[in-house]
Structures are given as structure tokens and as C-alpha cells.
Design goal:
36% helix, alpha+beta
Length: 169
């Protein structure tokens, strides 16, 4: 993960539900380019990581939520010109962290705007459903601005894992 990754996780942990950071058994992250294909890359990274961690039980839920969080970051947190140009500096980063019975996925983006759930009544609307889906499939979710030298925010979703699904460390 390198030094960049560890500085990222400090503010992230403060915004999460009470979880002991020392108890993280696994963590992985990947930088995502400002391109719409980044959603596919995020799903592939998530599938590979969850496979290595043997977290089969919430697999589909986590992949769906990761897709929505990354789509939101690309659609709402970046200027459209950055996405079209596929700017070099990857502005969006996906983090996956596993505790014994918890899994958290978090997406960092450069925008300070709070994520807003659209009107969930209109199921035919493409836009605005993302956070409604996140709320439906994750056990909890939230967001917070980044602290220190990092600008932007982190949007996270938490999944509970049943102990039977977790292999002994």
C-alpha cells in the first residue's frame, strides 16, 4: 500500500462506525483513472480481492455497491472534461478493508460536495438511484471530508459478515 495508502486510511477510519483500526485483517486499494471504464476496473479489483479473502457471502452486494460508489465519484465529483480527457493523475481511489466480521469499501474523490441521494421513488430514472442502491445493499454507509493535506471526501459502505463465512486467521 505504501505511505500514500496509510495516510489515506487515517481520516477514513475516523469517519467509520466504531471499528478498531488495529484489527484490520486485510486491506487493499487501487487508483482509478478518470474514465468510465474505471467502474469495470473497480469491479474486477473487487472480485479479485474478495476472492482472495474468501468473502463469498456478500460478494454480489459488495460488487454492486462498489460500482455505484465509483460511478457516483466519476459522474458527480469530477469535471466532465476530466472524465472525457482521461486525465493522468488518478483522482478516484477505491479502498477495501476487512475486519473479522465486517467489510468496508470506501471511495475517495476530489470533490467536497456531499453525496445526495436522488428521489428513490422514480425507479425508471438512471441518475440518483446510486445512493438508494448503496443504502439498500450495504448495512450502513456514510461520508466525510478528508483531513490534512488530502482534499476531497470519502464515501464508505459497511457490510456485516457472518462468522461462519470468515475463515480462521
Amino acid at each position: 500500500m505504501g505511505t500514500n495508502g496509510s495516510t489515506m486510511l487515517e481520516p477514513l477510519r475516523q469517519g467509520l462506525p466504531p471499528l478498531d483500526p488495529a484489527a484490520v485483517s486485510s486491506a487493499a486499494s487501487c487508483a482509478l483513472p478518470a474514465r468510465l471504464e474505471a467502474v469495470r476496473e473497480a469491479r474486477r479489483f473487487t472480485r479479485t480481492t474478495l476472492g482472495q479473502w474468501e468473502v463469498g457471502e456478500r460478494f454480489d452486494d459488495v460488487c454492486l455497491v462498489v460500482s455505484e460508489l465509483v460511478t457516483n465519484a466519476l459522474r458527480h465529483a469530477l469535471p466532465a472534461s476530466a472524465v472525457r480527457a482521461g486525465e493522468q493523475d488518478p483522482p478516484v481511489r477505491l479502498h477495501l478493508m476487512r475486519w473479522t466480521t465486517r467489510l468496508v469499501c470506501a471511495v475517495r474523490d476530489p470533490s467536497h460536495d456531499s453525496p445526495v441521494a436522488g428521489d428513490s421513488e422514480d425507479f425508471s430514472a438512471e441518475s440518483g438511484r446510486g445512493l438508494f442502491l448503496v443504502e439498500s445493499f450495504a448495512d450502513s454507509w456514510g461520508w466525510h471530508p478528508l483531513a490534512g493535506t488530502l482534499s476531497g471526501k470519502v464515501v464508505w459502505a459497511l457490510f456485516r459478515l457472518s462468522p461462519a463465512q470468515v475463515r480462521p486467521e
